[in-house]
Amino acid sequence: MTRPDSAIFGQLEAVRSLTLRQLDDLTPLQADLIPSGFRNSIRWNAGHLVAVLERFAFKAPGIPSPLPPSFRTQFDFGSSPASWMDQEEPVPTLEELLELLRDQPGRVREALDGRLDEDVEPYTTTTGILLSTPREYLSLGLYHEGLHLSVIKLYRRLLGL
Gene3D superfamilies from the entry (predicted)? Predict the structure, then answer.
């Protein structure tokens, strides 16, 4: 019988695989293009996915993250590549982000396997969704990744990639 935890980790790996398929064939220059009328690039979206899942998976349960603090200011909600010039820390390259995206689901599984239903510091999203277990955080993370996967696909289409 499959453990209940396996399903969400499997979904995380499957969705991440779809995201990586949209990113793997891009050049760094292509990943930094911003479609007219938008404020972010494909590289920003990739970094944003890493940053948000990192926060959802590790911060609430109090697990240390290996990402530098600058990662959050570079890729969190409200940030954009326009602010990267003002940063002291270098912004991760596309290749570095791809590596983080590939490794992150395994790190999440390793850290949270058997802990998905523990009570953690609750968080209410800007849309009013209350999250109080790692499973709830990861479920929202899957939805969030799907949204940004759609954005990446849209950007590719708008940019002719």
Answer: dinb family like domain
The distance of Cα 15 from the centroid of its chain, to the nearest Å, equals 11
- Quote the longest CA-to-CA distance of the chain: 52
Q: Report yes or no: 43 and 120 within 8 Å, Cβ to Cβ.
A: no
The tally of domains found in the chain comes to: 1
123 beta partners: 131
- What does pTM read for this prediction? 0.93
Q: Give residue-wise pLDDT tens across range 74-113.
A: 999 999 999 898 778 899 999 999 999 999 999 999 999 9
Q: What range defines the domain where residue 124 resides?
A: 4-159
Distance CA 78, CA 70 (A): 14
Q: What are the pLDDT digits (tens) for 121-152?
A: 899 998 999 999 999 999 999 999 999 999 99
